[in-house]
Amino acid sequence: MAITLQIIGHKKSGKTLITTTLIERLSKEGYRVAALKHDAHNAAMDVPTTDSARMSSAGAKQVILQSATEFFFHQKSNVPSLTEMVELLSTDNDFVLIEGHKEATQYPQILLLKPGEDPTNVAYTPPLKIGSIFNGTTADLLGKDAIVNWCYDYLKQVKGDAG
User: Which GO terms describe its molecular function (predicted)?
Assistant: First the structure.
């Protein structure tokens, strides 16, 4: 079972920066990493005018786009729960990183703050750590490197690979 960590915070708090940097670091060491991105704005992965987007727009409830090396799965209804998606990703990966889903409390979280934010107004439960890529916050971890290093050490410790 993969080790899971949520990176939460408001829009433009640095979630994607931290998540992608952490993925790069873990991947370079040979770990298999899955990412699950929450979007509260009903985004779509299909690019308009592509065949897969046209199939979806025509009414297909599920579309799989397959190439020689990748596939993308698009489903319009019956969206699986966060737990079901994490379980699906856990089977083939060492780590699952969740960006967002701050309302979910079943996974360990690191909270990213923007200047002037109060952690109690962002997180539903106390996070493991509070970080910020900005100055002028009450965060425990300041700067991208400090946050990524803490997340990396935490994940390796939980996995039992701490060195």
Answer: GTP binding
Q: Which domains does the chain have, with CATH numbers?
A: 3-42+79-162 (3.40.50.300)
| Distance (Å, whole) CA 131 – CA 120 | 14
Mean pLDDT of the chain: 89
Whether 113 contacts 134, CB under 8 Å: yes
**More confidently predicted of 56 and 99:** 99
Q: What is the pTM of this model?
A: 0.87
CA distance linking residue 113 with residue 133, whole number of Å: 8
DSSP state of 34: E
71-75 vs 62-66, strand pairing mode: antiparallel
CA distances from 55 to 44, 65, 79 (A): 13, 10, 19
If we measure between CA atoms, which residue out of 60, 88, 87 comes closest to residue 74? 60
- CA dist 115 and 31 (Å) reads 33
Amino acid at 73: F
